[in-house]
Amino acid sequence: MLSEPEVWVALAFIVFIVGLGYLGAHKHVLKALDDRSERIKAELEEASRLKNEAMALLAEYQRKRGEAEREAQSIIAGAKAEAERLAVEAKAKMEELVERRTKMAETKIAQAETQAMADVRSAAAEAAVAAAERVLAQETKGDLAATLIAKGIEDVRNKLN
Questions:
Q1: Number of domains present in the structure of the chain
Q2: Helix axes 25-139, 5-23, angle to 10 degrees
Q3: Neighbours of 156 (CB within 10 A)
Q4: CA distance 59 to 65
Q5: Beta-carbon neighbour count of residue 132 at 10 Å?
Q6: Which of 115, 146, 152, 112 lies closest to 131 in space, CA to CA?
Q7: How do the pLDDT tens digits run along the chain, 161 residues long?
Q8: Distance CA 53, CA 112 (A)
Q9: Radius of gyration for the chain, computed over Cα atoms and rounded to the nearest angstrom
Q10: Nearest-angstrom CA–CA distance, 13 and 110
């Protein structure tokens, strides 16, 4: 049995394992495995913590984006309302201006009509006075004629004006 190489390999392996056990190699291996396990556990905990932080940041940014969108919508709605108010105000001012200018034009037209009527009356009165003066001058003579003509002219002027 000692002449078999497998037996010597098995005995050498057993001696090697016992030697490793005597020197505490298994403790070093177990410690290295435990250290690696702790390092992996710490990395997993760190990754979990970072994931939670990232989720919290994502939720916060989504909330802020929602607030910003609502604020933008509010600003847009306010701007539209302001534009509509300004349009209504401008329309009212324009209508007021047109109405005021129309009234001014109507007033000027009425004044022009009144002035034209006065001018026509004045011209008619002057023409009537001149005609009456010519007729009376031809038909009456002397001081009486002059007095009657002056009085007649004065009466015509008073009645026509």
A1: 1
A2: 60
A3: 18
A4: 10
A5: 15
A6: 152
A7: 778 888 889 999 999 988 888 888 888 888 999 999 999 999 999 999 999 999 999 999 999 999 999 999 999 999 999 999 999 999 999 999 999 999 999 999 999 999 999 888 888 878 877 777 777 667 666 676 677 777 777 877 777 66
A8: 86
A9: 62
A10: 134
Residue type (1 letter), 7 = V
- Domain range for 146: 5-160
Report whether 132 contacts 152 (CB < 8 A).
yes
The encoded tokens of residue 116 equal 């034209």
Spatial distance between the Cα atoms of 7 and 13, rounded to a whole number of angstroms: 10
Q: What is the C-alpha to C-alpha distance for residues 57 and 49, in angstroms, rounded to an integer? A: 12
Residue 149: CB atoms within 10 Å: 19
Residue type, 90: A
> Six-digit token pair at 150?
């002056």
Distance CA 144, CA 155 (A): 16
